[in-house]
Amino acid sequence: MPPGGGGEVFFSCPVRKLLKPIQLTDPGKIKRIRGMAYSVRVSPQIANRIVESSRSILNKFIPDIYIYTDHMKGINSGKSPGFGLSLVAETTNGTFLSAELASNPQGQGTAVLPEDLGRNCAKLLLEEIYRGGCVDSTNQSLVLLLMTLGQQDVSKVLLGPLSPYTIEFLRHLKSFFQIMFKIETKPCGEELKGGEKVLMTCVGVGFSNLSKTIK
Q: 30-131 belongs to which homologous superfamily?
């Protein structure tokens, strides 16, 4: 946890020569919610309090909810105390919408109660579900970048309302790759509930991975 940190991340990724075009236009319906409440260098009860408060809101929406708790202490828990919650909603078509919140770093801002954090994170997830689309607002820019770098074929993705970050990112894509997206708004009817949806369409630049294994 910030500010002391003290953890490490192992990142491994398969090498891809080309990115395939995608057609993600049907997000499906929410079928289950999974999550992880984590706490380090604080009372183990805090993670349980987060789970109870978030479930008090999410249980009204769907019954299939499971939130795991992960408490670490001692040398494995890093250098700073803190806690947080990560929630993921999975749909019938295999798309994921996520929300995450963490406590303020030690000595910065006001202290956050675990109950408030759990409720606020649950509301953030419900906000993402209301916005809808095949990708949540945090990852909109990532999917648009991968569509841009794909093969010279048509890619389509259905998103919820575009976030200010995504709008600025689209301007960057135009500057760097000269790629313009076709943007169609889809009004909400019986099929698409929640916020207004946006269908994003583009033709990839045909980017190819030139990396070679260094002996």
A: RNA 3'-terminal phosphate cyclase, insert domain (3.30.360.20)
Q: Which of 181, 182, 178, 184 is nearest to 205 (CA)?
A: 178
Report the candidate in 105, 87, 100 with the shortest Cα–Cα distance to residue 5. Answer: 105
Residues 42, 49 contacting (CB under 8 angstroms)? no
Give pLDDT tens digits for 136-185: 999 999 999 999 999 999 999 999 999 999 999 999 999 999 999 999 99
Q: Are 49 and 81 in contact (CB under 8 A)?
A: no
At residue 190, the pLDDT reads: 60
Helix (H) or strand (E) holding 155: strand 154-159
Break the chain into its structural domains and give their ranges: 30-131, 135-203
CA-wise closest residue to 31 among 86, 100, 89, 99: 89
